[in-house]
Amino acid sequence: MATTAQRHEQAHPTPAKYAAIAVILALITLVEVGVVYAGVGGLLLPILIVLSATKFGLVAMFYMHLKFDHRLFSALFVGGILLTTAILIALMSLFRVFFS
Predict the structure, then answer these.
(1) What is the CB-side half-sphere exposure of residue 85 using CA atoms within 13 A?
(2) How far apart are CA 7 and CA 25, in angstroms?
(3) CB-based contacts of 1: which residues, under 8 Å, 6+ apart?
(4) Among the ranges 29-33, 66-70, 84-88, which has the highest mean pLDDT value?
């Protein structure tokens, strides 16, 4: 019977998977740069927030190994990004960034 440490070690991705995640992160970054230059108007901030949150999730889950750890750690990181996003949106609304 495999121990917890052996099962944990087998769950980690291969270097090829890490490279694939890096390519996905680079593509998301290219989309972010393209959105800035495309001039999408009032949709710029929401699009960038969603893309940034997606990149944060990928980095946290794969490179910080949260996908393979206890779900509590993932919940703490997701809760943190949701709280941060809510605070940023509230501050941007307070200072009328969306209405200028």
Answers:
(1) 17
(2) 28
(3) none
(4) 29-33
